[in-house]
Amino acid sequence: MLLRPLALMCLLALPATAADITLMDRNPVLSHDYLSGWRFDEGIFGRDVLHYLGCETLACAATKSQADLAKAKPQAGLRDGMFQNLGGAVSIGEIFDSLANTALMLSQVIKISGPIVPGDVDRLKEFVEDNGLMNCSEPGFCPYNTVIALDSPGGHLQAALEIAHYVQQNNFVTLLQKDAVCASACSMIFLSGYTTYEGVFFPRRFAHDTARLGLHKPSLYVPPRSYSADQMNEMQDIINTTLNDVVEVFVGAKVEIDILQEMYKTKPKEMYYLTTPEMESIGRVFHSPGAGRFAPTRAQALTLCAEDYKARYGRYEPQLLRTMASGQDVFITYVPRSDYACYGARQEGQWVYEICTPSGSRPDQFDRLACQLFRCAADMDGTMENCGSAADVHNNDNLGDALKDLRNSQLLRLVNDTLRSPYRSNSIACTRTGECAYKPLKPVPAWVTKAPVPQTYCGQVDMRSPVNLKRLQHALNANGMNVGTPDGSIGPKTLGAIGTANKRFLGTDSQWAQPELLLALGIPQDEVNNALICN
């Protein structure tokens, strides 16, 4: 029995005081900081929040008191007959999305900050009861329940798991506010913001893109001394039970296995912070104002696509740098031998982007017509003139292999023709049954302006940068490997010359230019440094 309170401390440092549990003066979400990119015309009840506040704009909503928000909340949803007479017009998913959004924007907000210690779950329950903050239609069914905002470095793992169970059982909404940090044991509470209805899962967790969610391998503290065999067995049981509880939180919360693996790869004294795309894979992320209003650099476009790929497949793909083409108003990168492509363009002053993914890849449920158009155009030597709305494809190549033989200029023209001309702010997407609709294109998010380029790519040559490529082409010509007139656009001739140079100077079989090859071709060190990503 003496071991139990000692072995369950999952900490970076032992907390001296309990978590601070307070009631915020006003819900912070209904503001420009969070909802500048929110589409109020989406969802079956998307306009109700503003409508029932008597507002048409966020500026108006920001002037309302918490009492005004509380008064509007009962009117903003469908409390009576919520799931009756749907008639196929709306899905349960749409209803639960609306309920979560309404609760998030209009409910009172409990803030939990500071380290988490044993007994905090009882303090939280008492706080909720004393302030009348439990809002349930029936026990365990609380679609409009209170928001719990988290800003904690973590603390006692078992105490956090107890709070997480309380949060999930009562359908509380979890929130990471602007600039909040929720790390270690705190993450268990955030992930428990979800509900299930008739076996169907619905997330109820939200975060600002400046917030950080940190994970690491649980740390079980045991004071150094001699232990008996029985004590060691008890300790092993405690460890196994606790780690199993952690896994159950991840499984119940429908968190990708790749994120769980990142947690267990991260040592207890280190921290793995989820990227914004990883956060989007587990909940709704509010983007900082400015999305789509800046021209992404090549490094920023690479970061956007690389982090998206990492969130989907659990790793960074080197080919995303090696295939990236960009121009003044467009960019595209893709992965050979796969159907993944990431591309964007400027439309009427705003930058938007789109992703092609293999069938069934999370989180897309639609096939983008543009992805088929790319494959069709590759059949036609990079032109779309004979690609109709059906986008007939005459080969069995995957998207990446269909694109790999096209020059930069052809790739950029495809993106320009697909995103800038035919569909404007929308893209056609089709379900597996063939039903098609216009889907809004995403603005390039503001977080990429602050995110570092993934370390995987740092130190590599940005070979397809027009400036770097033209310099490389001049050097290849000077060394007797003719690529024609240097034009900063890669094609079979340039790739073949790079392969020949690698064999001659480095003894390698590759069509990719490493820093060593640039130096061997006589390019000065300072120019090589300038050609590197992350320089």
Question: Could you please describe the fold and organization of this structure?
Answer:
With 535 residues, the chain is α/β, with parallel strands linked by helices. The chain has three domains: 4-24 and 108-286, 2-enoyl-CoA Hydratase, Chain A, domain 1; 298-449, no CATH class; 459-530, no CATH class. Helix content is 38%, strand content 14%. The protein has 21 helices and 19 strands. It has helices spanning 4-7, 32-35, 48-52, 58-61, 66-76, 92-106, 120-130, 157-169, 186-191, 229-252, 257-265, 276-282, 298-313, 319-322, 369-379, 399-403, 408-420, 466-478, 492-506, 515-520, 525-530; strands at 20-23, 109-113, 147-151, 173-176, 181-183, 194-197, 200-203, 205-208, 212-215, 272-273, 284-286, 325-326, 330-334, 341-347, 350-356, 367-368, 426-430, 436-440, 442-443. Strands 1-2-3-4-8-11 form a six-stranded mixed β-sheet, sandwiched between helices. A five-stranded antiparallel β-sheet has the order 12-13-14-15-19, sandwiched between helices. A three-stranded mixed β-sheet has the order 5-9-10. The N and C termini lie far apart (56 Å).
